[in-house]
């Protein structure tokens, strides 16, 4: 792969209207287009990890995405400077890398359903273990890819949301640049290759879309598996920004929710600094008495450290990234001290945060709510002549194709609608159609 081809400001779905005469670059316009979009705005009411309490403000999908975007831009700018110094004669738009990564970071969670990752698991479980399993043979007999549903993946759904021409919408969906779209796809292969982790990058309905993106940017396939693409290089920066933010911010949120003590939290965060930097970090931290300020200072220092480390790893392995032979994440290649501290945070998060009662409660609720909504809406879409179905289908916005000709398409219509919901909307709809709450008359 080569940077001249990889950094393309051509817009998906609007290739024939390609025009560079703007005050803002096309990548900056990607960022602005996402910020002002309704799906991005709805992230403010989607769970990140913790349920959204009223008295303590923890991260939701919106604040998380904004923070990831800031971190991604910093790394992108670092990498851009490094590449411009390395290739002073190249005409590639290296200076735009920060804008590309920032926009991709904004969009990386836009396909996630409500209730955090439990929403993804609830959808998958419905088709793997629940009533949805009865539709498997019908989907397969019609040529549909059943694995798209039993391994439902928010990353693949983001590409669908950004590129699909929903009813009444323009060609190309959001009409993002090819480079921004490619930067979102962490797993550039179909659900048939998802393996035990169930991760993949695009649904059957968007497979040709990604093929088009890959061909435009010169992303090649693996020699040993031509059905699987190598990663687009800037994906590594988006992934690293996400890794940095969710891990460090989850620790800070856990402290605010009293799942971790002050001593535990500060101890975990100080582990990132070597003996040379530690005295300076402690001295600055001790200048303030407010414990929240102490932790905020440590968090910002760690993010700065990891941004520099991940940028270094990217630049040192740039040739492998272009060849498609870099087979790990940037965060796993940071210096040993930071790597060990990050691992301790991960272990603590798994043990004390992700298994916390509050997190488990939202997962249990997600399963019940999602199971019922998918069951009811799928039943209605598949049996539209029934009286109750006709009433329920009026709740589905017109942009979603309830009249799709295949079972795969009908299921996807339901998942498009449900995955776009906020936590509050999904709960409200569940309560109304079960009769648990009635609108005021």
Topology (SSEs and partners):
Blueprint: H1 3-6, H2 26-35, H3 38-41, H4 61-86, H5 97-107, H6 116-128, H7 136-141, H8 147-150, H9 154-163, H10 178-182, H11 207-217, E1 221-222, E2 225-229, H12 235-256, H13 262-270, H14 278-285, H15 291-316, H16 318-323, H17 336-353, H18 357-382, H19 387-393, H20 407-419, H21 423-433
Antiparallel strand pairs: 1-2
Helix pairs in contact: 2-5, 4-5, 4-12, 4-15, 5-12, 6-18, 12-15, 12-17, 13-15, 18-19, 18-20, 18-21
Strand content: under 5%
> What is the strand tally?
2
Number of helices, where a helix is a run of at least 4 consecutive DSSP H or I residues:
21
Strand order of the largest sheet: 1-2
- Low-pLDDT windows of residues: 52-56
Helical fraction: 55-70%
* Global outline: globular
Termini gap: 62 Å
- The average pLDDT value, as a whole number, equals 89
The SSE order reads: HHHHHHHHHHHEEHHHHHHHHHH
Oligomer description: single chain
Strand-pairing-aware structural class: mainly alpha
Outline the biggest β-sheet: 2 strands, antiparallel
Q: C-alpha Rg, in Å?
A: 23 Å
What does this structure look like?
This protein has 441 residues and is mainly alpha-helical. The chain is built from 21 helices and two strands. α2 (26-35) runs parallel beside α5, α4 (61-86) runs antiparallel to α5 and α4 (61-86) packs across α15. It is globular and about 70 Å long. Mean pLDDT is 89; it is low at 52-56.
């Amino acid at each position: 792969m080569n940077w001249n081809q990889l950094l393309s400001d051509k817009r998906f779905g609007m290739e024939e209207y390609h025009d560079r005469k703007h005050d803002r670059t096309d990548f900056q316009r990607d960022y602005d287009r996402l910020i002002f979009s309704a799906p991005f705005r709805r992230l403010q009411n989607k769970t990140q990890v913790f349920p959204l309490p009223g008295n303590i403000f923890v991260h939701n999908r919106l604040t998380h995405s904004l923070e990831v975007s800031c971190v991604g831009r910093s790394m992108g700018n670092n990498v851009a400077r490094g590449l411009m110094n390395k290739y002073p004669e190249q005409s590639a738009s290296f200076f735009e890398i920060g804008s590309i990564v920032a926009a991709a970071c904004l969009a990386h969670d836009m396909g996630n359903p409500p209730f955090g990752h439990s929403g993804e698991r609830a959808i998958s479980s419905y088709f793997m273990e629940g009533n949805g399993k009865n539709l498997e043979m019908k989907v397969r007999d019609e040529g549909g890819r059943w694995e798209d549903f039993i391994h439902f993946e928010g990353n693949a759904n983001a590409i669908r949301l950004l590129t699909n021409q929903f009813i009444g919408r323009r060609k190309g969906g959001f009409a993002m640049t090819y480079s921004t779209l490619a930067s979102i796809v962490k797993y550039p292969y179909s659900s048939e290759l998802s393996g035990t982790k169930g991760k993949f990058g695009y649904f059957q309905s968007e497979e040709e879309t990604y093929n088009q993106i890959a061909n435009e940017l010169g992303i090649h396939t693996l020699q040993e598996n031509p059905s699987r693409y190598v990663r687009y290089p800037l994906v590594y920066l988006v992934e690293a920004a996400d890794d940095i933010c969710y891990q460090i911010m989850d620790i800070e949120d856990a402290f605010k929710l009293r799942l971790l003590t002050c001593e535990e939290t500060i101890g975990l965060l100080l582990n990132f600094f070597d003996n040379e930097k530690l005295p300076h970090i402690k001295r600055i931290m001790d200048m303030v008495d407010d414990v929240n300020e102490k932790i905020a200072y440590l968090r910002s220092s760690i993010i700065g450290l990891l941004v520099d480390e991940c940028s270094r790893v990217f630049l040192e392995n740039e040739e492998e990234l272009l060849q498609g032979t870099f087979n790990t994440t940037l965060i796993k290649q940071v210096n040993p001290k930071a790597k060990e501290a990050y691992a301790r945070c991960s272990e603590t998060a798994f043990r004390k945060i992700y298994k916390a009662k509050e997190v488990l409660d939202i997962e249990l609720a997600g399963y019940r709510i999602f199971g019922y909504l998918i069951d009811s809406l799928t039943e209605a879409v598949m049996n539209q002549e029934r009286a109750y179905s006709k009433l329920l289908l009026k709740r589905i916005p017109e942009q979603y194709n309830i009249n799709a000709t295949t079972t795969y398409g009908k299921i996807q219509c339901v998942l498009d609608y449900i995955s776009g919901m906020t936590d509050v909307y999904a709960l409200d709809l569940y309560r109304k159609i079960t009769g648990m709450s009635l609108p005021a008359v």
